[in-house]
Design a protein that fits this description.
The chain has one domain: Porin (Beta Barrel), CATH 2.40.160. The chain has 1 helix and 15 strands. It has a 12-stranded antiparallel barrel. Strands 7-8 form a two-stranded antiparallel sheet. By secondary structure, it is mainly beta.
C-alpha cells in the first residue's frame, strides 16, 4: 500500500516539474470527465494530475501517434490528501483512442476508444468506482470558429465494464466547450447515468444523470489548470453537494 502511494506521489511530482516549450494549440481530449474526439498531436506526450473528492488523486500519462492514435496509462488512490489512510486503486488503468475519421467541414471527427479509469472510492464488493469508468466508447466532435474563439459540440455512447451492481453497461453523453479568448475556456457535459441508476444500494446514482462543468485556464500553451464542478445535480445518493476538483494538464513534444 505505502509503495503504491509513493509511486503516485512520485509520478505527480515528475509531471509537475517537467519542462515544455511547444507553442502549438492543443485540442482538448475530454469534455469534462468523458472523452471527446480530440487527440494529442503526433509524438507529443501528456501528463495529467487530477485532485478529486475526499482527497483522491489520479495521475495520467499519454502519448499521441500520427495524429490518429492516443494511448495512455493512469493510476490513483482515494484519500491521498487529508487525514486517514489512503486507499490505492486495485491496479493501473489504460486508455486507447483511435480516430478513423478526421473532422471535415460538414462532418464531425469520430473516435473509437477504451478507458477503464473511474474516480472516487473503489468499491471492492461491487467492483466499481464511485463514478464509473467509460469503458468502451464511440465519440464524435464538431468545431466552429465563433466570436471569442472555438465552439465545440460533442456526443458519445459508451459501455462500462463495471456492471456488477446492476448489470447495466450502456450509457450516453453530450457536451460543449467554448473558448473565451486565448486564455480561458468553459466545458459543460451531461452524462445520462443509464448504467448507474436503480442500483438499490442508496449510495450511487439516483437517476438524475451527471451534470459536470469546468473552467480551464491556459497558463501556457502546454500547461493548463482546470477547476471542475462535478455532479452538479447531486446524482450521487450519498453526497450532500457537488464535488469541487482540480486538474493540471501538461502536453510536451518528444
Amino acid at each position: 500500500m505505502k509503495r503504491s502511494i509513493l509511486y503516485i506521489v512520485f509520478l505527480a511530482i515528475s509531471l509537475a516539474f517537467g519542462q515544455g516549450s511547444n507553442p502549438e494549440y492543443y485540442q482538448p481530449r475530454r469534455i469534462v470527465n468523458m472523452p471527446n474526439a480530440g487527440l494529442l498531436p503526433d509524438r507529443a506526450w501528456m501528463g495529467e494530475i487530477r485532485l478529486v473528492e475526499d482527497g483522491g488523486l489520479v495521475a495520467y500519462a499519454g502519448l499521441g501517434l500520427r495524429g490518429r492514435i492516443q494511448a495512455g496509462v493512469s493510476y490513483g488512490a482515494h484519500g491521498v490528501l487529508g487525514r486517514g489512510d489512503p486507499t490505492a486503486y486495485p491496479r493501473p488503468s489504460f486508455q486507447m483512442k483511435i480516430r478513423p475519421f478526421n473532422e471535415k467541414q460538414k462532418f464531425p471527427a469520430i473516435v473509437l476508444g477504451y478507458d477503464d479509469q473511474g474516480t472516487g472510492l473503489w468499491d471492492k464488493e461491487l467492483k466499481r468506482y464511485s463514478l464509473k469508468s467509460p469503458g468502451f466508447y464511440l465519440a464524435a466532435s464538431k468545431n466552429w470558429t465563433t466570436l471569442g474563439g472555438n465552439l465545440g459540440l460533442h456526443a458519445g455512447l459508451n459501455y462500462s465494464l463495471e456492471t456488477k451492481d446492476n448489470g447495466k453497461g450502456f450509457d450516453a453523453y453530450f457536451g460543449l466547450d467554448k473558448n473565451l479568448g486565448d486564455i480561458f475556456a468553459i466545458y459543460i457535459e451531461y452524462v445520462g447515468g443509464i448504467n448507474d441508476n436503480d442500483t438499490k444500494d442508496g449510495v450511487y446514482g439516483s437517476g438524475k444523470g451527471y451534470l459536470n462543468a469546468s473552467l480551464k485556464w491556459s497558463v501556457r500553451p502546454d500547461f493548463e489548470i482546470e477547476l471542475i464542478l462535478a455532479d452538479l445535480l447531486v446524482n450521487n445518493e450519498s453526497a450532500g453537494t457537488f464535488s469541487r476538483e482540480v486538474r493540471l494538464s501538461f502536453v510536451y513534444p518528444l
